[in-house]
Amino acid sequence: MAVALRPPKPTVLRTLRSWVLAGVGGAGSPCCRCPLGAKRYLLTDNIVKLKAFQQKKVAVAYSLPGTKETYLSNLEEKLTQNKLILKEELRTLLHLCESRDDVELAKHVIYRYYVENRSVTLGEYKFGPLFMRLCYELNLEDSAVELIKDQVLWKY
User: Which InterPro entries does the record cross-reference, listed alphabetically (predicted)?
Assistant: First the structure.
């Protein structure tokens, strides 16, 4: 399965920048805009690591035993039957997402993972950066901002 690489779009970065800078004078402040039209972004491409994320997505899809649809249906079944969600299952799911529906399933799995692991203090999986890269790649700014603002998931 090949994934077409496209140039990254800075919409999520702009959303994050405007959200962060809202208390510092807003997005229109002179410290964030150049009179020549150049823009500064909160995160650079080296920080976002989108290409490495896309390469990992291809590797995970290739090494998956079975099909993506089977994997997703197994996870949905685990959610409905209140079975344990493992860290590797969450990580694999985040690498397999390709649509808005997949991301919605991932959000449900994230909340479930949090409920199961909220009392664990050592070794919890920090899925936030991976979810943000996924939202950045799929242009789902609203899902990214919703997860950032969620006070329940603040430590993940």
Answer: PTCD2 (IPR034629)
- Nearest-angstrom CA–CA distance, 81 and 26: 46
Query: Considering only CA atoms, which of 16, 47, 45 is closest in space to residue 32?
Result: 16
Contacts of 15 (CB under 8 A, 6+ apart): 141, 144, 145
- Could you read off the pLDDT of 28-77 as tens digits, one per residue? 444 444 555 555 556 677 777 888 888 999 999 999 988 999 999 999 99
Task: Give the pTM.
Answer: 0.66
> Within 10 A of 128 (CB to CB), how many other CB atoms are there?
16
Q: 87-99: buried (b, 16+ CB within 10 Å) or exposed (e) per residue?
A: eebbebbbbbbee
Q: How far is CA 155 from the centre of its chain?
A: 15
